[in-house]
Amino acid sequence: MSSGVRSKAERWEQRVQLGAHPLLYPAIRGLGSIRPVVRLPGLGILVSEAALVREVLMDSQRFIKNGPSGSGALWTPVVGPKALVNMDGAEHRELRRKLADLFTPGSVSAIVEPAADSLHDRLHHGLDAGGHVDLVDCVKELAGGVISRLLGVPDDAPGRLPNRELFNLGSSISSLVRLGRPTLTERQIAKGRSAVGVLAGPARAAYRKSDSQTFPGRLRALGMTEEEAMGIVSAFVMVGTETLVSFVPRLIALLADSGRIEGLVEDRSGVPSAVNEALRFTVPSPMMLRDVVSPCTLGGVAIRAGDRLLLSTVHASKSLGGFEPGIPIPPHARQLWFGAGPHFCIGMPLAMAEINATLSLLLDRYARHPWVVSSRQVSRGVLIPGYRRLELANA
């Protein structure tokens, strides 16, 4: 791949980052390049080196997720105290152990395949008609279809909300978070609870039916109370929506801009490496938060109990270099975008199934009828960087 083509791919990805955070992104990248650990008055302590980020994530004794300014604590007023994302310690480990069987390859396929079938129909209908297809909107539909499965809603259920509306509800919860906001306001909590209430309606019905074919029914079979099950369902809905819709269009744009689509069409063995490198380069979870509970030293900087750590996965990952599938990722940075240690993303198999299903559909389509990225627009002023619109058209 020529340097000119490579720079096009990376130039667009930088526009995505700057669209979301025109001041904060260059500041974080600049500070991370100077020092691996730096105290930012009013915000917390920025940790930018991959090995140090992993060290923090692996140590749940000194650094916790459910502290007063950690990301987990933000969600407790909205989804309840036992939603996995806001738990630590032995109780958290036990809940993860119970949930592990819900994310086997077979289980996630049953959740993703119906939504992928709808995505297939929409992509082909739009492109076969000779028009344009907005991939961002398509992935929102896919995410909404997955949400409906997590809620246990049959496709033919009377009054079933459209997939896009389900996505919007999930997105309305996750969009409440801001880096400079350690807590949610009463109004934001009320907004989040309202969305959770709408989503929880069908999930409660599925739970009460004890149908083992539904996600809420399986949670009941694991011994979860109804409120615990609703918290877990709500957490999976809100955590996975924005990051998936951010990543998939950026993945396709990177592959198209770097001229790698045709190679993957001819040889699918390169798909895992391309997806993993795109995750590393785009970093769909650009920042993670932890609270310090005991004093220590990190990267030569004294850390006090009560400090808030800003774990810059975006710098830790991007500082490794440009988009180059096939080059091994150093062990200390591997899968850092999914976390590490006790809070490594339990929904990773589900996210990967959605990503791979979408990419497979687009590669299959390209093999029969090549397509191009015809136009795009980056999102501005959002927490998770991404494209607002990414249109595909027949070549």
Automatic annotation (TrEMBL):
Q: Does the keyword Ion transport apply?
A: no
**Entries under InterPro entries matching the protein:** Cyt_P450, Cyt_P450_CS
Keywords, ordered alphabetically: Heme, Iron, Metal-binding, Monooxygenase, Oxidoreductase
Write down the superkingdom of origin.
Answer: Bacteria
Oxidoreductase recorded as keyword: yes
Per the entry, which co-factors are needed?
A: heme
Which CDD domains does the entry mention?
cytochrome_P450
Similarity comment? Belongs to the cytochrome P450 family.
> What protein name does the entry list?
Cytochrome P450
